[in-house]
Amino acid sequence: MYSSLHCLTLREDCLWVEQGRRAICITYRYDVDTGALKYAASVFRRRELDSSELTTYWTDDGHEYDLPRDGVPYYNDRGILYRDLDQQDIKNHHQTTTRRYKIRPARVMVDSGLSYDDLIKTIRWEMCHGAGCRGPRKERKSGRSESPESVCSDVSSISDYRVSDETHELKTEFRARYYVEGREIFLVFKGRPSTGEILYGATIHRPDAGDSFSLAGHDCVSFERAQALTPREVEAHYQTAADRLHKCPVHFKIPSEMRSYKKQLKRSAPHREDLTVLMVDNIFDRRGGFLQIRGEREETTAEY
Fold first, then answer.
1. Strand (E) positions, the chain?
2. Which residues contact 254 (CB under 8 A, 6 or more apart)?
3. What is the pTM for the complete model shown?
4. Least confident of 157-161, 186-190, 285-289
5. How large is the average pLDDT for residues 168-196?
6. Using CA atoms, how far apart are residues 290 and 180, in angstroms rounded to an integer?
7. Terminal alpha carbon distance of the chain
């Protein structure tokens, strides 16, 4: 456990974490006292070496075996050879992680006072099941003053796209929570993995920030303290998002170049991080200058 007197904020740049056949590069900042976590990451997935990267040898008794060619970095996992990181890969991942951390980091609130091992496990959990490897695109600047939940008064002009009736009739719904740019976004959504069609409703909470603080004489970073939501408040936000999904959903479809994300709409999907980032991006990709947290009120909706 860290002492808040000596280390209010813990930060590491381009930390490498090994997990099975994955090598993960992480940059993060964790406020021990409040539980505020800011991070970005990139993942190197080791692939099995192909024949062009192997040289075949034979033993004296005629048995055949393969070894990597000279200069090919490899990783041996129970006798299977995988392509490993080389210096250029490391450099590329350092650049990608650093760029993500500067431009679009993930920001979440986690437990305060985590041990180092629990902190790293928490970041990995967020990468797989929560905020993902990076945050959404930053909101476009606007000269107008608007509320955190600005929506178009004539929402029919937001988008002409409509999902199929089969998507409306789906019963399985998913929840997602995302923190970006001082806002917490709550999503309730459903969709068809075969088509990539999605219906969602969302709500946004902008917490009141307290005064920033720093500790002179220590390597610390000042951080705005925010009042965490209670479980009842969290559930109320999800309920509002669900009501919007049922009554006035946003119609959305996974872009064709990201069709691999469709599998995250399956019940058995291990995570839905990419879908969450896509929907958050869509919320801030304004139509007519307004956030897309709800759509046009449906004349008929499925029974719930």
1. 9-19, 22-31, 36-45, 54-58, 64-68, 74-77, 80-83, 106-109, 174-180, 183-192, 197-205, 250-253
2. 191, 196, 198, 261, 262, 275, 278
3. 0.50
4. 157-161
5. 89
6. 17
7. 46
